[in-house]
Amino acid sequence: MGWYDLYRQKLAPADEAVKLVQSGDWVDYGNFAGQVVDLDRALARRRDELSDVKVRAATRVAGVPEIVRVDPEGKHFIYNNWHLSGIDRSLSDQGLCYYIPILFRDVPRYYRQYIDVDVAMIAVTPMDRHGFFNFGLQNASTRATLEKAKKIILEVNENMPRVPGGREECVHITEVDCVVESSNWPIPTAPLLKSAEIDQKIAQLVVSEIEDGSCIQLGIGSMPNAIGELIARSDLKDLGVHTEMFVDAYMDMYSAGRITGRRKNIDTGKMVFTFCMGTKELYDFVDENPAIASYPVNYTNRIQVIGENDNVVSINGAIEMDLFGQICAESSGTRQISGTGGQLDFFVGAFLSRGGKAFCCFSSTFADKKGKITSRIKPLLSPGAIVTTPRSVAMYIVTEYGMVNLKGKSTWERAEDLISIAHPAFREELIAEAEKIGIWRRSNRC
């Protein structure tokens, strides 16, 4: 029997395929821009037949899951998430999405060693002539999920980019139970966020620390865009890419001739990532691009692997941090905003890299919903705030008022350094609080 004969044998409508799901099952939807859509709608249509179906996903960007929309009281479906998007955050605020704490690099092991998966539903590219379906924009823990799943359903989408590996970027027709040809819904995009003046000030400070041949890791948002734009206009040479998330800034830097990967110690010449999210132009760029290599997250985010490249430059953000150097990048008090993701992985990995530097970049203040201006640098983290990166790991901290390096610094030195880059309107208040908690010396006062 040929691969296409087997494909036709396993082909089924979405409503038929989701009959594999039973009450009490754990179901995986895939991650990021690779989550299922038609299968989600079909499963939602079975609402009244099912109870206690637990669904896992990461960073939903394809709209509110239909299983949540049709079951607002969570009587039939329980939605869980590894890393919250704006959609997931809104659902979490309503008690309709439960966060799963993680270290991103460890998630494949969670699946292989600890997690039950009754049915895995994954969005994939069309099958190639060798019988393989490519995972497209998601790699992360996908292969591990399918290995653990009792049943596998693929949702084929002709719009999904085919992204080269790496490794663990595909599944074979012989491994799956059911194939559904989707409605070829548009792959969800993440719009470019225009950088503000503060972002550009911070970008200038960071880019001044980047050398020819550095290996770059960026997150998403206006800050990485500002850094990417500045690097694209610079005269930096032979930059490399080893990151968890691949965003438009890399495409811009590559197109400007800044990225070649020639000086990377591993995966030389390849831009390495574990998932991709951005514009349609970015998805076209990664499609069948031999300069790209998709890997599972236990490779991209493994600290020893990150450290194998020289001059790793890791750039991430924060919601707030305290004068001890603890960084919260995922919650506002007890309210979950996003997730731990790979910030800690890359902070540690960059430090293991010869010449490596890890930057935490953020505006010195933010305005709440009532317009009140608040300092992001606080004496202590807000009650309930999650420590994403511990003080022992923090390295370069950057605001629009400057840059400091906390490595090897005592508590009083950290307090002085961080107050020096806080907004001037809050410095006296921070000094007073630092004195109360015993981490202030008057050495930097005239």
From TrEMBL:
TM region(s), chain numbering: none
Keywords, alphabetical: Cytoplasm, Fatty acid metabolism, Lipid metabolism, Transferase
GO molecular function terms attached to this record: acetate CoA-transferase activity
Domain Acetyl-CoA hydrolase/transferase C-terminal residue range list: 278-434
Cellular component GO terms, alphabetical: cytoplasm
Localization (cell): Cytoplasm
InterPro entries, per the entry: AcetylCoA_hyd_C, AcetylCoA_hyd_C_sf, ActCoA_hydro, ActCoA_hydro_N, Butryl-CoA_acetate_CoA_Tfrase, NagB/RpiA_transferase-like
Stretches of the chain forming a coiled coil according to its record: none
Binding site for CoA: 219-223, 319, 342
Pathway recorded for this protein: Lipid metabolism; butanoate metabolism
Signal sequence segment: none
Residue ranges annotated for the Acetyl-CoA hydrolase/transferase N-terminal domain, each copy included: 6-189
EC number of the protein: 2.8.3.-
Active site: 244 (5-glutamyl coenzyme a thioester intermediate)
Reaction catalysed by this enzyme: butanoate + acetyl-CoA = butanoyl-CoA + acetate
Any GO BP: acetyl-CoA metabolic process
Family in the record: Belongs to the acetyl-CoA hydrolase/transferase family.
Function according to Swiss-Prot or TrEMBL: Coenzyme A-transferase that converts butyrate to butyryl-CoA.
Official protein name in the record: Probable butyrate:acetyl-CoA coenzyme A-transferase
Organism: Desulfotomaculum copahuensis
